[in-house]
Amino acid sequence: MGRVIAVTNQKCGVGKTTTAINLAASFAAAEVKSLLVDCDPQSNSTSGLGFARDPQRLSTYHLLLGEADAAQAVQTTELEGLSLIPSHKNLIGANIELVGANEREYRLRHALRDIRNQFEFVVLDCPPALDLLTLNALVAADAVLIPMQAEYFALEGVSELLDTIERLRQSFNPKLEIEGVVLTMYDDRSILAQQVAQELKQFFGDKLPGNIIPRNIRLSEAPRYGKPVLIYDVGSRGTESYVR
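Request: output the structure for the sequence above.
Response:
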């Protein structure tokens, strides 16, 4: 069965979608079959892989509502070995539509069950909120990867997320692990960033990898062209960091 990793942080603008896209793409580039599942109604992972909006296309919305099987929704991408289950703006309504549904927290886990053995890694791009969509992703996941910037406000948000994860372990998914915390948009010239990184290292230990994601213009440009950064500019610092 493929390992399912939820990329999540309820704070906006921390490089969550960039991390989800380029992590999944880096697996594929290493000839490791991967699936990216866009769980965010903003559909940024979907457009970031070059898929235009299409109201007729099957998406995570249809999976959560039980209107389609995951295998029907899987799309191939420009990068061999990388597949996508796209999102749709209607996904925002799932937070309301699922309120009274049976096993509402387990919908995504059940939907992915039949295709997990086709991929070595399944990466879930979560919305920037601790809502029912994120809850479904965390219940479906084996582990959580938390992207964050090296700033003090980010520390407060991660503390809240860790508390949510612990409560979720007790109620829905006792095997959920913290895969790690990855620093994004890192500016090594900033003394503040260095101080926050040191504090995070003391708190998370080995869960904070030595490799960080630098602030890099190529990472910002790539989504505009609907490409992972390793296709857009294979030699960039951003590409090198995500591959590592």
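The mean pLDDT is 92.
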